[in-house]
Design goal:
The chain has 184 residues and is mainly α. The chain has helices at residues 41-50, 59-66, 102-105, 121-130, 138-152, 164-178; strands at residues 19-21, 37-39. The protein has a two-stranded antiparallel ribbon with strand order 1-2. The radius of gyration is 30 Å and the shape is elongated.
Length: 184
């Protein structure tokens, strides 16, 4: 890290302050932690050697902090209670084929089938490719697949291969849904 013109925070040291250390005790205005101290390599090493997390704690406080399950009694962000303001994961490329995580954070209710058979996230995506409702049956699936294959196949379009990518998506979606438990 570059010092950006800062000098080491230790008195009498004229080396550049390249390493960040916590603020000195009692520094700051009481509104959160004080500003970091910047030190040279020699002084930050000395600071780290004399740092003691348990300094100022009683024996009972040290024992409480060192117990095997310390910190595990509070809920984590991902498993916090519903309605606690937890917004869910922000990543866009997360693969959740069983819809185990994303279903909790979905704003609109997931489309359900009338027969009660579950749909995975991949099932829903395949239904969207085929343009089918969530409660479609196996017959509707076959009929829609036939329609789309005829529409996108190059032989039906005078040899035009511009729809070939969509045809591959339709075939993959059909193959996936054909084996899905909801369409068994």
């Amino acid at each position: 890290m570059e010092s950006n013109g800062r000098l080491c925070a230790e008195l009498g040291c004229d080396q550049p302050g390249e390493f960040r250390a916590p603020p000195a005790a009692g520094s700051g205005d009481g509104e959160g932690p004080g500003a970091y101290r910047w030190m040279c390599l020699e002084h930050v090493r000395a600071f780290n050697n004399r740092y003691n997390y348990f300094d100022g704690m009683t024996a009972d406080e040290i024992h409480h902090a060192q117990r095997p399950l310390a910190g595990w009694e509070r809920e984590t962000r991902a498993f916090a209670r519903a309605g606690s303001g937890d917004q869910g994961p922000r990543w866009a490329d997360f693969n959740d084929p069983l819809d185990a995580i994303a279903a909790r954070f979905r704003r609109e209710p997931a489309p359900e089938r009338n027969d009660g058979k579950p749909l995975s996230g991949q099932d829903r995506a395949s239904l969207k490719v085929l343009g089918l409702a969530a409660d479609a049956d196996r017959g509707a699936l076959r009929k829609r697949y036939s329609e789309l294959v005829r529409r996108y196949h190059p032989d039906r379009n005078g040899g035009d291969r511009s729809h070939e990518a969509m045809l591959q998506k339709v075939i993959a979606a059909y193959q996936q849904l054909r084996q899905a438990p909801a369409f068994a």
